[in-house]
Amino acid sequence: MRGTKSVPVILTARDEQLFQFLVDARVCDREQIKAVAGFESTNRANARLLRLVRAGVLKRFFIATRSGGVKALYCLSPRTARRLSAPAAPIQRASDAVLIADAFITHQLAVNDIHIGFCCKCPAKFGVLSIKWLRPKESLSPTVRVIPDGYVEVNRATECLAMFVEVDLGTESLSIWKSKIQGYIRLAASGEFQELFGHSRFRVLVVVPSERRLANVRKTVLSYTRKLFWFATLNDINSRGLFDPIWLRPDGDDRLPLL
Asked: For residue 124, how many other CB atoms are within 10 A of its CB?
């Protein structure tokens, strides 16, 4: 295959796996790509990504980090997106452009962390047989006007655990949260969830940037229900993993494991 810069490249199964992930994730950083594509070496990941960028099958951008540096971000090139019937590139800037802080990118990278945490980092000790991740593109139903950041089914021999994912980075008002809470309660109480997804119960995993934000959203949820919702910070998830005892329910102080 020959890219727009006339740099030949032969695509591998690992490349195609990465492209399929990017169809859903839209944009990733290198560490996420290493986890998805199975790179154990940063140098090898850097070399392969550079090759794919020069071939025109990926686009690369840079964004400032909190430490004052920059890091690379990658998305499908328009040509690769067309080949996969995927949405157009989410960042309409020239390759290698340096981006200012972007709420879409920050949120998407956080959602990717949850996706990868489920699909690439689930410990074998939990006996998980399969994990299915979906990214809803529209409201769950005409009566439940909620679009989750993700929906995941964790299948074990004894159960299938269904969970919606809501990543909140502190930008959504509590009035929006009240609408989401009411929507999820309606979905559970009406039986519509079972009609749509084939399961009788679900959880809503709420991921927030700080303990302070966790307390605020948790308090709002508790005014409606003690059920359905589970809460954790993105820092705990990234440092300890989704499956560790890091989760809080709407009331109580016990940190619970996900499984």
From this structure: 6
Residue with tokens 């989704």: 242
Strand, coil or helix: what is 115?
helix
Helix axes 103-119, 30-37, angle to 10 degrees: 20
Partners of 216 in the β-ladder = none
Find tokens 């992930």 and name the residue. 21
The identity of residue 123, as a single letter, is: P
In which band, very low, low, confident or very high, does the pLDDT at 66 lie, cut at 50, 70 and 90? confident
Q: What one-character-per-residue DSSP string does 117-160 give?
A: HHHT---GGG-EEEEEEE---S-SSSS-----SEEEEEEESS-E
CA distance 101 to 106: 8
Residue 5 has pLDDT above 70, yes or no: no
Structure tokens at 65: 């980090």
* Cβ neighbours of residue 128 closer than 8 Å, sequence gap 6 or more: 122, 154, 155, 156, 259
CB 181 within 8 A of CB 224: yes
- pTM above the 0.85 mark? yes
Half-sphere exposure of 134 (CA within 13 A, CB side): 14
Decide if 150 contacts 114 (C-beta within 8 A): yes
Length of the chain: 259
d(CA 34, CA 46): 9
CA–CA dist 244, 259 (Å, integer)? 9
Residue 1, pLDDT > 60, answer no
